[in-house]
Design brief:
The complex is a heterodimer of chains A (292) and B (451). Chain A has 292 residues and is α/β, with parallel strands linked by helices. Helix content of chain A is 38%, strand content 15%. In chain B, the strands form five sheets. Chain B has a four-stranded antiparallel sheet with strand order 9-10-12-11, covered by helices on one side. In chain B, strands 1-3-2 form a three-stranded antiparallel sheet. The chains are: A alpha/beta (292), B alpha+beta (451).
Chain lengths: 292, 451
Amino acid sequence: MTSAHSKLYSDDVSLVVVVVDTNPFFWAGAALPFADFLSHLIHFVNSLLLLSNLNHVVIIAAGVSSCAYVFDSGNAYAGGTADVAETLGKASRKMEEFIKQDARETASNGTVADGGAASLFSGALSLALCYIQRIFRSGTRHPQPRILCLQGSPDGPEQYVAVMNSIFSAQRSMVPIDTCIVGTQDSAFLQQASYITGGVYMKPQELSGLFQYLAAVFATDLHSRTFLRLPKTLGVDFRASCFCHKKTIDMGYVCSVCLSIFCKYHKKCSTCGSEFSRVSMPDLNSLPDQRQ
Amino acid sequence: MPQVMVVARNFMDMVAALPAAKLDMLYDSAFICEAVLRSFPPLAKKYVIQMLYVSSPMPAAAMQEWVLDEYASKHKVAIDRLLQLRVFVEVRDRRKEVSYKMNNKFQANMQKYLVSGGCLPREPLPISVTGRLPTLVELENYALDQWECFLLQLINSSQVEKGTTFSSSMMKTFQRGLLSSRDGEAAKLSENGFQFLLMETNAQLWYIMREYISSAEERGVDPTDLISFLLELSFHTQGAAYSLSTLTEVQRVAIMDLMELGLVKLQQGRKDSWFIPTKLATNLSSSLSDSAASKEGIVVVETNFRLYAYSASKLHCEILRLFSRVEYQLPNLIVGAITKESLYGAFDNGITAEQIISFLQQNAHPRVIDKIPIVPENVTDQIRLWENDRNRVEMVLSHVYEDFPSKDMFEQCCDHARDNGYLLWEDAKKMRLIVNAEFHQEMREFLRRQR
């Protein structure tokens, strides 16, 4: 690890990958209009770029059935300082295009039945980590990376395994995942993500002042975070999703070989194929304190 | 040995030393605000961002709450810096409670930045006017050549083929801190000068810029104009052409000098003439420690104390000669050896072992940079040991006490000095002791009381 650290820039130069939820099902009914949200976001990106000329910001949009890079300050500044206003304009156009494209894909997939669709955060997190790895491997020195998730829509339990895998790989490469919830409900996945990777999890009370939250908490570089009182998470929802029906469960069966989680008893593990012999124990589904 | 360090880092100290009115004037320009903000320590930057949309004064006590108690000193440093540069202004209300408010101009400029993003100080000339411009690589080579040429001229005027056109008086100002000349002798590099040569390019550049700015008044130029122009220059796009006609008179004179240093390249077209900022110029406002990142190293040190530098530059050769014995030079390679004699010569000139080691590490060749340690351990250890060899004798100002009337008295004195940790030497037979000079007063008091 030492060799990687000697390649870091001093102090506070950061690479921030912002994952933005563009789920139309969520934004249609959100308290904060998407356009306002976007302007808060652009302010925030500008303020990050203002802090140091070596700061690097990437925005990844996470839609319902796809995700994509929308903005990369590294491209925008190929020759020193370029016209930021124009590139950001381009970014919001790209964002619109992405949303349209995403809507088409969703329609053709036909998987989304009702309004409660989740955004593809597992994909977006993987993209973010890939990007960070690319930066790690290129060039002589690189900035301190971190990921910021702006999530509004509810978690998609079917992404549980993928999201957890991204979280652990973020932890391994020491990339904190910050979370700012712009929706109404807490996200168990991202609570765990921030908890495991040492990031900040926050759910702002007053969404109209989103920029102030972003600037006060999430603009802080990793170096300064050690000195500051930052918001602490009150509790973390550690519940897992089962592998068979993707339901969030309190209690379940765990494969003793590969640690896969199931909500119902199986004769054979669907992940690793080990066969279980039934031992006499009470049926989990009949326990009184079980919540789904 | 007294430690003399050339202070080159704190250009912003110079800005901070300007009178308040001038400083406020500087903040009219968004670029200067941006450069000032970027020069702050991380915590101070964070405060600025956090306070950007707060228009009423913020109580100091409340700001203290932001930081964990054990890091209060960091908070103080950040706030002091912000006050020094007048980005935060102290406000006292009726109850004498201190609050901080952000400088209005600064705040407005930064808010504008957040809304519209950064913009360029002036429009570059279109390609139709300028024709083919030098590529970035060509430009960088040009800048480094120019800079090297200047440095060579600075340290010894004999080796230079094509001199710069700096007037000798200007050159003297630059050399003031770096060369020492006794009457009738040729000027020699002073301790500062040696340390200057081992610094990275950007730090050197700032040192020269500081000298340049502080001597501005002698030339009848307002330093404020120069500072703002330099900071503005650093926000130009590297490699683009800007028309000279947009500059003021002062700036036009300054840009001629900057060309000599390699900060800009001047080109003449059919009608217009223009300047092209190089990397040196655009790095001016960036933080000093990070700017050397892209420079490729040249030095390989082997465990047998041999040193290979892949460079054709005379300057590198001169620098290596400071602390090693250069054995031979091939067209692209300088081969030397680090010897006890060569290092003693370096230590005599006031270079420290740490400086040499950090120079070797910072300029390591890409092939060895991934190794841990970059410079072989036995070499670094030996360099440090050789330095320690010279510091075996430590000078301490002290006093001798002798002719004690009785053995008793002598012993009491000894004990008293020893208990306080100031006894340096004692000779019980001849009843003499030596005590640190700091303790002399106390010792006299003690002796008087004994009588």
